[in-house]
Write a structure and sequence with these properties.
Two copies of one chain form a homodimer. With 270 residues, chain A is an alpha+beta fold. The first copy, chain A, has two domains: 3-105, Alpha-Beta Plaits (2-Layer Sandwich); 117-269, Pseudouridine synthase I, catalytic domain, C-terminal subdomain (Alpha-Beta Plaits), CATH 3.30.70. Chain A has six helices and ten strands, in the order βαββαβββαβββααβα. In chain A, strands 1, 2, 3, 4, 5, 6, 7, 8, 9 and 10 form a ten-stranded mixed β-sheet that branches. In chain A, helix 1 crosses helix 2, helix 3 (147-157) packs across helix 4 and helix 3 (147-157) packs parallel to helix 5 (227-234). The interface between A and B is medium-sized, with 21 and 21 residues.
């Protein structure tokens, strides 16, 4: 019988040319589809929620697929992960992508179309030179950053706006550039680290990286926190900041339940 | 004028076939010599203290070289690091190997022959499945480990012994297999993490990884802590435990001053 299966996926984006299947290069979708085809015994086409770029990481990417397979749904993660790690049978090795969970969903469910929103995290280190172990996992900014100025700017981004100013050219064309950002937090988990966490109903191409680049310029004093409202109103990409590099970006969570997303948002406000 | 220069080097061993230069494969020594040749304007031959294996990391590898170069010693790290990161001029990117420090030493100094001892660190995670971000940086052990049993075994390894039982075949032949381990600590920095820190005047081929494999088997209850004395006395590799994988091993520090090494040892005892 046909089943619709939703996967939760973690990956280190360093070794991939992004999510989307492309001929001749190693992509997350491409590697997963190969492994799923091997494990399920027939070709699999994945619908992913986010087409993350080369170098971008995921803690909770989601993708769905449908088919009539011989293997029980709950056995798919371990079988696929072993295949991906190149260690069939041992069960404890790990490749640079792994399935965290496989869950059956009602017929007609689609990982992307049914998503209500997402949370991204962006990790910035400043001051000291980045070490070899951090080079692929954060954005290193030389000058110190004012988290306070960044927070002042961040609150102006929260809400429903036309985000054309924070959209890069080259993405899939969208009907509208209006999106709702439910929450945008600037945290300082360590003296030399700033993390940006942003939750919204959807994001335009490179939107989180451009928001981050803009907030970094605010944190460095190159832009005033008050400039955000003007940038948004003008809708001009050239007024916003630079595009922060992919290495610092993590797709953290996808929500299928608006309530769950808002609860997370509420918990942040406490 | 000829200068003898001592480098302190950090690397992520994942992308290297170990330290030692070999034709046709990417090694740390090979990449550094290429970069130094470019920066110094003439061929450079490095003398490294430790021939770390493929996958083994270093926080403080040391290597020395000698020559008459146009570039001041203090400018070598940034120039070489930019070359290694492939970002000439920007000064803030980082490759998977970088020079932390370059220092002039008296004529005749040799990084390996003058070393008085080393500290290695080994990182073990147990219980939960390793995530994609940890896969190259620790040894994942399924069963829980008793740090207490491992500590009992560790104290028996400290001291001057014939360590033939902890030596793998295939290393450079040594005059003697007697070494002194000044200190061997089993730490638990987090509930699911065990770190082994070992300081000695020298280590045989794969010695730290075999000590770790043996301690893991003690921690899992497969070997008694009291078995160590017998294993040492028998001098038989087959009685010791398995060789722990390279990913968890970090070359932490090299000592040129016996006093400094012993002070570090003393501070651990407090």
């Amino acid at each position: 019988m046909e089943r619709t299966i939703l996967l939760t996926i973690e990956y280190d984006g360093t070794g991939f040319f992004g999510w989307q299947r492309q001929p001749g290069v190693r992509t997350v979708q491409g590697e997963l589809e190969k492994a799923l085809c091997n494990v399920c015994g027939k070709p699999v086409q994945l619908n992913g929620t986010s087409r993350t770029d080369a170098g971008v990481h995921a803690l909770g990417q989601r993708a769905s697929f449908r088919g009539d397979f011989g293997i029980p749904t709950e056995k798919i993660p371990l079988a696929v992960n072993n295949f991906l790690a190149g260690t069939l049978g041992s069960g404890y090795a790990c490749g640079d992508v792994r399935i965290i969970e496989a869950r059956e969903m009602p017929e007609g469910f689609h990982a992307r179309f049914d998503a209500k929103g997402k949370t991204y995290r962006y990790v910035i280190r400043h001051g000291t030179l980045p070490g070899v172990f951090e080079r692929n996992y954060c954005y290193h900014v030389k000058m110190p950053l004012s988290a306070e100025a960044m927070e002042k700017a961040a609150v102006q981004i929260v809400g429903t706006h036309d985000f054309a100013c924070f959209q890069a050219a080259g993405g899939t064309p969208r009907e509208t550039t209006v999106r709702t950002i439910y929450d945008l937090q600037v945290k300082r988990p360590a003296a030399d680290t700033i993390q940006i966490e942003v939750t919204g109903d959807g994001f335009l191409y490179n939107m989180v990286r451009i928001i981050t680049g803009t907030l970094v310029e605010v944190g460095q004093g190159k832009k005033s926190p008050d400039a955000i409202a003007e940038i948004l109103a003008a809708g001009d990409r050239r007024l916003a900041g630079h595009t922060a590099p992919p290495q610092g970006l993590y797709l953290e969570q996808i929500y299928y339940n608006e309530q769950q997303m808002k609860e997370r948002h509420e918990s942040w406000l406490i």
